[in-house]
């Protein structure tokens, strides 16, 4: 039994590498389409994916984007959001989407629904797409 005691510190390091973000709690390996913001349908197309630990990427109405995901589940904090710079008729909807996404602080995944929300009562509802 004592000979395995030397492995305990290394097991702790293995746990440190584990993804604790929303991706690890049901959001990974899915593409999520925005359905509504604050209870109102979102008429444009916005997608979000979790391609690797600590990253998000997606498609907004006009541009592709990526950001750093910097919080353990159920918290949600994005940093360093970058997007391409194409112009289209959906730029207003895109600005609204990015502002809402950056303001979210909590996440919840239940089956094919992902909800992002914040303390001010704002909410974004996404549904998994195939």
Helix-strand blueprint:
Blueprint lengths: L7 H9 L14 E7 L2 E2 L5 E3 L5 E5 L4 E6 L8 E6 L7 H13 L2 E5 L2 E5 L5 E7 L1
Antiparallel strand pairs: 1-2, 1-3, 1-9, 3-4, 4-5, 5-6, 7-8, 8-9
**Poorly predicted ranges (pLDDT <50, ≥5 residues)?**
1-16
* Separation of the first and last Cα atoms: 48 Å
Number of helices: 2
Number of strands: 9
Task: Quickly give the structural class.
Answer: alpha+beta
Largest sheet: number of strands, sense, barrel closure: 9 strands, antiparallel
The portion of residues assigned to helices is 10-25%
Residue fraction in strands: 35-45%
Shape descriptor reads globular
Which oligomerization state do the chains in this entry correspond to?
single chain
Secondary-structure element order, N to C: HEEEEEEHEEE
- What is the overall pLDDT average? 88
Radius of gyration: 17 Å
Descriptive account of the structure:
With 130 residues, the chain is of the alpha+beta class. It has helices at 8-16, 91-103; strands spanning 31-37, 40-41, 47-49, 55-59, 64-69, 78-83, 106-110, 113-117, 123-129. Strands 1, 2, 3, 4, 5, 6, 7, 8 and 9 form a nine-stranded antiparallel beta sheet that branches. The longest helix has 13 residues, at 91-103. The N and C termini lie far apart (48 Å). Mean pLDDT is 88; it is low at 1-16.
């Amino acid at each position: 039994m004592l000979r395995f005691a030397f492995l305990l510190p290394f097991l702790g390091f293995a746990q440190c590498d584990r993804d604790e973000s929303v991706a690890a709690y049901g959001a990974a390996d899915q593409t999520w389409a925005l359905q509504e913001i604050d209870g109102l349908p979102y008429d444009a197309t916005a997608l979000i994916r979790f391609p690797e630990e600590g990253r998000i990427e997606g498609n907004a109405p006009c541009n592709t984007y990526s950001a750093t995901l910097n919080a353990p589940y159920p918290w949600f904090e994005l940093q360093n959001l970058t997007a391409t710079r194409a112009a289209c008729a959906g730029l207003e909807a895109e600005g609204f989407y990015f502002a809402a996404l950056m303001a979210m602080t909590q996440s919840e995944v239940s089956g094919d629904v992902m909800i992002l929300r914040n303390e001010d009562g704002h909410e974004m509802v996404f549904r998994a797409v195939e």
